[in-house]
Amino acid sequence: MTSERSVGAAPATRDTIELEVLSLLRARLRTPVTVEQDLFADGLITSMFAMELVVQLEEFFAVAIVGPDLKLANFRSVAAMADLVRRLRSGARAAGSDD
Question: What pLDDT, in 10s, does the model give residues 54-64?
Fold first, then answer.
């Protein structure tokens, strides 16, 4: 994303995730973006850019976005992306606690 650090295993609140995604989008798009804005409807994100976002979210937040999580609704807004990352990180922690 915009910083050299990765959140990785560190706790990430919804606000933290939203700020990171907003920062990325604002830098890339060079236009103001809001948390609830429909990025596809407003023509700000193409399917190619959405795939770049998938890779960046996976790397930055140490999650795997695969299968049913790759649906448009999960990338429609910054809020949706933050919810997806939080859900995936919660699932990863829960799966890791079984060891």
Answer: 999 999 999 99
Q: Residue 98: is its pLDDT beyond 80? A: no
62 φ/ψ sector (left φ>0, alpha ψ -120 to 50, else beta): left
Superfamily of domain 14-92: ACP-like (1.10.1200.10)
Structure tokens at 8: 């990785």
CA atoms of 28 and 26, how far apart (whole Å): 6
More reliable by pLDDT, 77 or 47 = 77
pTM exceeds cut of 0.85: no
Which whole-number Å values give the CA distances from 60 to 9, 25, 38, 41, 85, in the listed order?
10, 14, 22, 26, 10
Distance of CA 42 to the CA centre of its chain: 18
